[in-house]
């Protein structure tokens, strides 16, 4: 029986699992948080220990890898990680092939998750789709003609850095009004926090009551999740920031529909758990931005946190 | 010798030509303006007369058709024309196949022009490209993996209606700040005209001197071309409007590069003849909008007004 080894280098966590070819259940599964201030070497060592614990002297038939950062998928070399030091130009495919003696396929997490949803999740039966993860960062992966579309230099899918509001706030990338700047969890948290700090002292604890209570008045604890919770409880400022997130993503999806006309958009990541209002604004804005003749739907990802691992299985399969 | 018949239903003009398979020179070529207030039936009759005049009793091997409006390319049926009445649901492929007894392939002008540039023009040797026409309207056609990408319902490439400035002026489509609203010839002319009309009477003929002279003070004669000419002669308001056109297109190209990462963008259409400044702003804005890791270039179309006809040849070839 052919055995697939799936690996997920996630930036803050590492996961590995094995499954029989064609199966949609794991045989065994291991998951570990990366240590604080980890580096590429440490993460690779932890992953090796996970793999040997999983395999127990069995040899896999093929290896698929999801990596949290830009990858040259053709040669399987990591370009860099935005979260972990020391990953520049690490030939991950080659390292794994040398150690385990079988074919290894490596791609970035958004492309791999797109493949996972296409093969095992919300994209089954869809020939063209765009998977978008809205979390700490925002990225995406295309399936066109039933296959990953990676772009001429493997950089397609960077929906987080398309500009939707040229008068908007400045993003880390230097531009104004990127989708990621408006819609990602950490930026929503930052904007709510700064907004609270700007309040006149005599009003503090009044207007921001709901938010302050959720974090025991420690504004550093505000996250994207806290913003969603405060919005659900009726905090006006959180509602505005959350709606702006959904609006920015909706414009981006509508623009992508006009440009590429895929059948389906699949949304995953923590921000998609922000509730019905967030989803309604995304749906409505995307529908209004796309031309009326352009059909598409927008659905929730089905595989959750396991999308990269299942995608890694699909990636390994496609290499066989 | 296999003979290709290429047809271009352009909205205001009709063109037909024949070429030997594999050749890049026309054997014969006919071109006619559509009559004022023409309709589908009249344009079809004129096109038939052009075809019979070209063919002179020879039978073509295949027919390729470029149509100026949305087409269902799979069944070769026109959806509608935005310029000429009566085209709704005309089965153009079927009509031509019945009359001439050979395979006919039909697609919209932007897709066909993209194919033409890919096969015979500025896109030769490029596996992924986006052709954009910036003229009365703004549209585009994708080549991905060396083949046309039309989208799930044949509507891909609508770059004219992606939103780049949500606070911008209202487009005919109902949205604010579409690329077409900011960058197309007629809208540039409209904005310059309205801007001139808003001037206090005592200033008329002073600030807008260059523009007014170019149209003998008849503001209805202002076109996109006039705006370019006035900008070249130093008219400040024309310069601002023309730069805004280039800026909007640059944002759209940068966003498309982030999403799809094609090797090359090819720009055609009358507005691309607006001079070096326009091109510089397009290039600069697109480069700044795309992530630094994303490589692409932006070049001028090579086939000019004949791009749809040469594309029709390539379309007919690909059907053989």
UniProtKB/TrEMBL annotation, chains A, B:
Keyword check for Isomerase: no
Keyword annotations: Kinase, Transferase
Signal peptide: none
Cross-referenced InterPro entries: ATPase_NBD, ROK
Domain of life: Bacteria
Molecular function, one GO term: kinase activity
Family, as annotated: Belongs to the ROK (NagC/XylR) family.
Protein name, per record: Sugar kinase
Organism: Nostoc minutum NIES-26
Lineage of source species: Bacteria, Bacillati, Cyanobacteriota, Cyanophyceae, Nostocales
């Amino acid at each position: 029986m052919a055995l697939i080894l799936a690996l997920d280098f996630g930036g803050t966590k590492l996961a590995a699992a094995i499954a029989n070819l064609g199966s949609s259940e794991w045989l065994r599964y291991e998951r570990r948080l990366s240590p604080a201030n980890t580096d590429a070497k440490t993460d690779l060592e932890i992953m090796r220990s996970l793999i040997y614990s999983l395999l127990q002297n069995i040899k896999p038939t093929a290896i698929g890898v999801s990596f949290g950062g830009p990858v040259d998928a053709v040669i399987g070399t990591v370009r860099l990680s935005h979260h972990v030091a020391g990953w520049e130009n690490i030939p991950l495919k080659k390292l794994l092939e040398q150690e385990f003696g079988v074919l290894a396929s490596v791609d970035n997490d958004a492309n791999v998750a797109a493949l996972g949803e296409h093969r095992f999740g919300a994209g089954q039966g869809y020939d063209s789709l765009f998977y978008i993860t809205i979390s700490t960062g925002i990225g995406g992966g295309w399936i066109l003609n039933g296959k990953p579309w990676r772009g001429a230099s493997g950089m397609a899918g960077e929906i987080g850095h398309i500009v939707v509001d040229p008068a908007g706030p400045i993003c880390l990338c230097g531009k104004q009004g990127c989708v990621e700047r408006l819609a990602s969890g950490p930026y929503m948290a930052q904007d709510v926090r700064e907004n609270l700090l700007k309040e006149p002292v005599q009003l503090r604890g009044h207007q921001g009551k709901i938010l302050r209570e959720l974090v025991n008045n420690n504004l550093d604890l505000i996250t994207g999740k806290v913003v969603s919770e405060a919005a659900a409880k009726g905090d006006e400022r959180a509602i505005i920031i959350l709606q702006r997130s959904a609006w920015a993503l909706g414009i981006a999806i509508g623009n992508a529909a006009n440009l590429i006309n895929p059948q389906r958009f699949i949304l995953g990541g923590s921000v998609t758990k922000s509730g019905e209002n967030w989803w309604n604004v995304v749906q409505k804005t995307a529908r209004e931005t796309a031309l009326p003749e352009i059909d598409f739907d927008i659905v929730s990802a089905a595989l959750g946190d396991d999308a990269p691992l299942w995608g890694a299985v699909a990636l390994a399969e496609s290499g066989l």
